[in-house]
Amino acid sequence: MTSYLRSWISSVPSLGVTSSLPGAQPAPNIIEVPPTEEDDEDEAATLRGDEEDGHVDDSPSAFPSLDSAQRAGSSKEITSPAIPRILTDSELMPPPPLPGLASRRPGTSSVSSASSSSLLRATKKVALAPGQGVDTLSRIPMSVLRQHNKRDDAWSSFNGKVYNITPYLPYHPGGEKELMRLAGRDGSKLFALTHGWVNIDYMLDECLVGFLVSDS
Ligand code: HEM
């Protein structure tokens, strides 16, 4: 552009811009060689990474790059992952056993007396002796709960469930005396304050007698 203006100005003598100035040198003749279309294409091809013979290399770069720290840290060569084999039925793991409560029906005991004692030993659960458990779960008003406050007939309520705690008294790690404080009462708050992490529903499952309802 500059050279074009210069050549235009010097070619118009009437303007006399250069010649009228004292001591001014005549503008040098600048010859510009416009780039040919061929040169442009060569440059673009170099930027694209084309080969000399016009072949286009579309193969991806190595990832991670060949001299990367990731490769240096790994001793193994990266190979494609093996396709897992589909196992046959006989090779598969057997299904887990049914959960203990799944087969239980309301009002019936799910375990026989023999398996009940082995269960007690294995899991430290407490079960009522045969004949002492209840056949059906009842709605128990607070006034009824209060009557069951003797050592040999102690009921207590926890989170709306009423349990016969008498069979558990000898096993309580905190002692019978502490547990008897709850006899004939709703023990939810005291229990939660003492050891809320203890799973009372699991431990006294077999001692459940019913659900606490309001007196009406
Ligand atoms: C039916 C109701 C209850 C059940 C099923 C029960 C159950 C348990 C269990 C499983 C432990 C051992 C916990 C552990 O080591 O982490 C324990 C400890 C204890 N419980 Fe209870 N508990 C009951 C009610 C109570 C109540 C009402 C109190 C007192 C107000 C009480 C006082 C204690 C104490 C002081 C210990 C610690 C004993 C020790 O480590 O020396 N518990 N109880």
UniProtKB/TrEMBL annotation:
Keyword field contains Metal-binding: yes
* Region described as Disordered: spans on this chain: 15-117
Biased-composition ranges, Polar residues, are 67-78
Query: Where is each Cytochrome b5 heme-binding domain found?
Result: 137-213
List the InterPro entries: Cyt_B5-like_heme/steroid-bd, Cyt_B5-like_heme/steroid_sf, Cyt_B5_heme-BS, Cytochrome_b5/Flavoprotein_Rdt
Q: Does the keyword Heme apply?
A: yes
Q: Could you name the domain of life of the organism this protein comes from?
A: Eukaryota
Membrane-crossing ranges are none
Keywords assigned by UniProt? Heme, Iron, Metal-binding
Listed Acidic residues bias regions = 35-55
* PROSITE patterns the record matches: CYTOCHROME_B5_1, CYTOCHROME_B5_2
Give the family from UniProt.
Belongs to the cytochrome b5 family.
Protein name per its UniProtKB record: Cytochrome b5 heme-binding domain-containing protein
